[in-house]
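User: My collaborator sent over this chain with a note saying "see what the structure looks like." That's all I know about it. Can you take a look?
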Amino acid sequence: MPELPEVEVVRSGLAPAVTSARISAVDVLDERALTRHPLGAADFVARLEGRAVRAAVRRGKFLWLPLEGDDDALIAHLGMSGQMLLRESDAVRERHERIRLHIEHPQHGRLAVAFADQRTFGSLAVDALVATEGAAGGFGSDLAQVPSQVAHIARDALDPAFDERAFIAAVRRRSSAIKRILLDQTLISGIGNIYADEALWAARIHPESHGAALSAQAVRRLLSEVRLVLEKALAEGGTSFDAQYVNVNGQAGYFARSIEVYGRGGKPCSRCGSLIKRVAFTNRSSHFCPVCQRKR
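Assistant: Without extra context I'll predict from the sequence alone. Here is the result:
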């Protein structure tokens, strides 16, 4: 599933093209892409056509476009394979295109935003905006609002309003494994399997170490490594192991070349030479160095 860097790459690519653009028409090609919009395709189209987009905003793995007028937004969750692609207004359909937005921008003219999704786990919806605690709801806008479907999602470690002290205290109160804590989107957002493994390796922390067993200094060090990993992935366009995770122009990121442990089970650790270990973790896998990351 796309994590914070992949979604931020999409947001930053969309922002110049959609901000101040007006949605002239909406084509719903597959209603499976509206699972988060319970009122169906006709309502979805009616609530978008003729509306102007105010910004492109992200919190964690969620992306939304606040709309002019009523306090609502077009929200996108990319699921496992969703893509938001910028195209010419008359471009041919994408292979797995589910929804197309026709937009008119005062500077860039007519464009199309195509939502393509091979596995159909992603979804678009028009959702009401609710007030935050005062800080901007997400990255990309100063609006202190967030879609109701995203209100339960915590801020991410790169968010200026992220409460580091509260996070450290919450981690040290928990007896669950630190990797499970990192993946809890209600505590800290935007981190998935890849960046959790990478940050834990960089901080020399075993993924099964209990949160309560970690010192405040260790959690602070882990947060620092989370930020460094996310920032490096952003600089390299995110992680793409196949053609599914791409930017708005369909180009893949190259952070996969910088990965230290994720997907490298049985290969030597670049730090100590020991073999990277791969173990089952829920329906996925964890990767770590058994020497550099001793369990506490």
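A starting point for your reply to your collaborator: Helices lie at 4-18, 40-46, 164-172, 178-182, 193-203, 216-235.
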